[in-house]
Amino acid sequence: MTFENLVVVDGRTHMLGRLASIVAKELLCGQHVVVVRTEQIVVSGSLVRNKVKFTQFLKKRTNTNPRKGPIHYRSPARMFWRTVRGMLPHKTFRGQQAMSRLECFEGVPDPYDKMKKMVVPEALKVMRLKPGRRYCVLGRLASEFGWKHAKLIEKMEDKRRVKAAEFYAKKKTEAHQRALAENEADLSAVLPKLEQFGHYITPTEPTEDDEPAEPEPAAPEPAAPEPAAPEPAAQAADY
């Protein structure tokens, strides 16, 4: 990634570990990263296999007081957040500052629904997972272990898609009307003045009246002169 003030990453169909490793490196470099739609992140392996692995993870706790940790997050956003934390030196000041630059969300909340979202090609499932291999979605795995907001997130995402489709249709209509207005506008009176100040106005598309006339056919070139007949060979002199 190139350094920007804020990068919004769409987590849909990204591999969990590969996306987390790339995000961790960017955080250490000072990049602010927001990951949305974490419930659609992909984990390699079947659902049954990942359920067994997560069940074994739940058994790791403090015997004397389980409240002291480790804490087992159930929401997809916190599961991804914890994966990134495991790839950072989060107990040092540098790692704490890097973690403060990361935000994770289920769905696409405001104001990130109106921002440009990016993907990471190196972490996409279609690029990294062999066709036919089993995988599961992080949201389904989280629902199996107590996350209860999957239906709510799906309902909110449906509303967001409807609003986004309406916004895009309105944007296309306005762009079309603006292009027509610019083509029909007569800027001949103000164009010289604008050019004095360094402004360049894109010329409108030529109409049928502005098409150049066809050039007249050129006069035929004069015929080349016929070559002269060869002179007769000189007779040998009699000595």
SSE run: EHEEHHHEEHEHHH
DSSP strand content: 5-15%
The number of E-state strands comes to 6
Structural class: alpha/beta
Mean pLDDT: 87
Strand order of the largest sheet: 4-2-1-5
Helix tally? 8
Helix content: 25-40%
What is Rg?
A: 35 Å
Largest sheet: 4 strands, parallel
In the predicted model, the low-confidence regions spanning at least 5 consecutive residues are: none
Cα end-to-end separation: 100 Å
Query: Quick one: overall form?
Result: elongated
Helix and strand layout, with pairings?
Elements: E1 7-10, H1 16-28, E2 33-36, E3 42-44, H2 47-58, H3 76-85, H4 93-100, E4 102-104, E5 117-118, H5 125-128, E6 135-137, H6 138-144, H7 150-184, H8 191-196
Parallel strand pairs: 1-2, 1-5, 2-4
Antiparallel strand pairs: 3-6
Helix pairs in contact: 1-3
Quick overview of this protein structure:
With 239 residues, the chain is an alpha/beta fold. The protein contains eight helices and six strands, in the order βαββαααββαβααα. The strands form two sheets. A four-stranded parallel beta sheet has the order 4-2-1-5. It has a two-stranded antiparallel ribbon with strand order 3-6.
